[in-house]
Amino acid sequence: MLTRSLQSGALALALFFLPRGTTAQDFVPVSLRLEEALDIARRYNPGLRAIRNDEDLANWNVRSAYGALFPSATVNGGVSWQGAGEQTFGSLTAEQLGFANQPSFLFSNYNLRLEYQVNGRTLMAPGQAKADRVATLAQVADAEANLVFQVTQGYIDVLRQIEQVRVSEQQRERATFNLRLAEAQLAVGSATGVDLAQAEVAVGRAEVTVLQTTNALETARIRLLQQMGVDLDSPFVPTTPFTLSEPLWVREELYQMGLNNPNLRSLRASRSSSSYGVRMAKSTYLPSLNLFAGASGFTRQASSTAFNVQQGEFQAQSSIQNCLFFNDLFSRLANPLPSQDCSQFQFTDADALRIVDQNTGFPFGFTGQPPTAGISISLPIFQGLNRQLQVSEAQVTLDDLDLSLREQELALRADIATTLATARTAYQAALIEEQNQTLADEQLRLARELFTVGLADFLELLEAETLKVEADREQIAAIFAYHDFLANLEAVVGTSLRTP
User: Fold this and answer.
1) Tens digit of pLDDT for each residue in 267-278?
2) Is the bond preceding residue 46 a cis peptide, omega within 30 degrees?
3) Which of 99, 160, 343, 379 is geometrically suited to a Cys-Cys bond with 480, CB 3.0 to 4.6 A?
4) Can you tell me the distance from the alpha carbon of 243 to that of 159, in angstroms, rounded to the nearest whole number?
5) Which residues pair with 455 in a beta bridge?
6) What are the tens digits of pLDDT across the range 167-183?
């Protein structure tokens, strides 16, 4: 078989070019199959891992959207201290009002508020968040499909360069053999010094080709490891066989498969999310409901109760003075009213003790304040055409996605048709190049025999050698061109088409 001979020496050649004395990551096997390379890339490629982080954000967006349907609760509190000293009340001081020697005070307070807000956007937010999450997951799948294509191309390129190195090594071996043959012919007089010089030049060129192809192999190997997201010094040998098989797929069947590829799934998910976005934009016309309730409390504690007792005595004296005043006023009426007992306002030791007992609330002996509650409904009437703008923007985005989806479906049919035709052409070209390679082998053998018996000059041998090298390289190019086009076709369809 065509590729079996190409692959026979690939493993030994690749093992020869493995890095020596390097520290490799344990999870990269030396015998690396394509499926293993893809699995490693899915786990360690930094770009794909960064995109997958969007999944967690999308999940939290869904949770947050549902959380907005529950009431919000806020509680705050604080403590403060006020030092002793003179205070002013308008233009008067506390001392002028009879409150001298004010102590320091400790204060604490709390405030609890429950609030529930609901509107059209709040009610529709969970659905929008779930649609966005589906779109995010589809984008991650699309990114993973692109990575699979890139790693597959890199894997094929490593195999291609291994074969190029093998051909270069064979070219150098043949050039060295031709040099020894020219030296032998020169010794018996059947060749000239020019023939020997040409043979030496051919060996030098073969050496340069080996260096160039070896460098290309190392570059391809590093690029593949980069796509896999692993240590660039990890040694490996690609062992998945890439054989030629006639592309017998039917174009319409491939198109039906391709309609479910990751790219189109991502576009459809984005379109679904955008469609929900239009409804979200229209929900701004709906009213908003706001419910709230709150409670609060405070404490105040003085460093000394003398000031509080003084205040109580002053208030008691003021109450007694008012009582006596009104009793005197009532006695002067034409029909006197009964007088009040002013002794009831007398400040007693019990009153002083009560004031002392009440000065122990800080920090948690709160005095509750009256609770509050309310409800409000808001219906936006005119907001400067802002809502109409939002609806129009959402609708335009949806229309653009519809057109993009249609464009991608048309592109899918065209890509499948052209890529399948190109793959079939590449397959036929590879078969022809196999025949050319066989003919070049035979021509080189005959030219070498004729040169050995003196019936051909060294130039004819060099021409046959050149044809042989070109045939080998064209055969490799044709084989891997077929696999490149097959990888492109798999990327378009969105699934593997290779025979396991």
Assistant:
1) 999 999 999 999
2) no
3) 160
4) 12
5) none
6) 999 889 988 988 888 88
Question: Which token pair is 58?
Answer: 């999308």
Could you give the count of Cα atoms lying within 13 Å of 136 in the half-sphere of its Cβ? 19
| Model pLDDT, residue 12 | 44
Cα 419 to chain centroid distance, Å, stands at 31
How large is the angle between the packed helices 193-228 and 458-493, nearest 10 degrees?
10
The model's pTM is: 0.76
> What single letter denotes the amino acid at residue 178?
N
Q: Across the chain, what does the average pLDDT equal?
A: 86
CB 42 within 8 A of CB 147: yes
Q: Quote the pLDDT of residue 94.
A: 59
What is the radius of gyration, based on Cα positions, of the chain? 46
CA dihedral 42, 44, 49, 52 (to 10 degrees): 40
